[in-house]
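Shift notes (night). Ran Prostamide/prostaglandin F synthase while the centrifuge was going.
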Amino acid sequence: MRKQNVELQSLWKDQPVVLFFLRRFGCQVCRWMASEISKLEPELRAGGVALVGVGPEEFGLKEFKDNGYFKGSIYVDEQKKSYKDLGFKRYTAISVVPAALGKKVRDISSKASADGIQGNFSGDLLQSGGMLIVAKGGEKVLLHFIQDSPGDLVPLEDISKALGISAKVKAGQRPVCNDDVCTR
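Came back to this:
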């Protein structure tokens, strides 16, 4: 795998860009989110918008790519500089447990399992992620979203709205959960 440094701002120099910052490539919830966001790829491409995924480490990248979870370009920020610059927090060993076991994460994990998307617990478990949508040339940040919980995501319609494009995709049905059972 060839490594080259890419300046973040170069990604929006010639076109608007949707940057999806994953917590980690092995994360089941992140994989499901990547597959959801990828539903917009045809409309984004047609609108001249780049779709870019950024991960905090190479660990799990090959499996992530091989399984086709994400339809855009993928970069790795091993120094996590862009994560820090954009305010994507790191959990502590204590704060990650309730966050990872929260209802949003359980709901998405259930949906991911139903869609055949599995995950693992390898790599950096403490990094949070988010999304940045930037207009062509970088003249305007159209959306800056920071995950509070690992299950937080930007709805597809909010991504389309931020870019001023119409998308005909349907978001995946989140499971309906009560205290005991999650169903489709």
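Confidence is low (pLDDT under 50) at residues 174-184. The two ends are 38 Å apart (CA to CA).
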